[in-house]
Amino acid sequence: MPTPPNEEVSRPVIVLVNPQLGQNIGMCARAMLNCGLEDMRLVAPRDGWPNPDATASASGADQILQDAQVFDSVEAAVSGVGRVYATTARPRDMVKPVVTPRQAAREMREAAGNGERVAVLFGPERSGLDNDAVTLADAVVAVPLNPGFTSLNLAQAVLLVGYEWWQAGDDTPARQLVQTATSGQTAGKEELLNFYTRLEGALDEAGFFSVPEKRPTVVRNIRNIFSRAGLTKGEVDTLHGILSALIKMPKRPRGPKS
Fold first, then answer.
1. End-to-end CA distance of the chain
2. Which of 9, 74, 89, 202 has its CA 20 to 30 A from that of 182?
3. Does 123 reside within a domain?
4. Domain tally for the chain?
């Protein structure tokens, strides 16, 4: 997987406003590191800072907690930031662009490419961001979820935004064949054709192609079955072994049909 760009300016700042529980701060640090985000800023955490409960729930993302900066106000926390996003699920009596996390990620990547620093605000666990904090934002991030239940915990919200930011710069194939050291490389056409020839010859000997005029169609169907499987060299070797065992197996006399 690709890593985020090295320039610190390219990574969004995560600002936790009045977070209540140390455990939640630690889980946010874990979610951040999952997504390559490292700059955490805390605004007046309720239980003070540092908080030992945060380390226990960070699951190894300790460096983010050690480097976290603490501020007395949201205004101070976003100092030096060019663009601010506020996460909230509640409607506000103010006119602001509302974007999904995916759209916000695209915009943040574009802003980073222009050398602009970006911050994302997350409110306290119970009440979320207040209107004064939202006023500082250039846009609101709202997660499209079940309209009947949109409640997220703090770490989930951070992970959703962070994940979309990571995905916006990720080029991992949507689907791929993962090969192990023992599975070998994908079988080449020559190896597959050799197997097809042996298999079809054995089927001929066994009388499988009982209707000669249908043989070409049936052969194509059989080849398509194996072609879709994306066989490796090791798997083709295994099929050769199975075929050899079946060929050597003593033929049993066929009884009358019941």
1. 59
2. 202
3. yes
4. 2
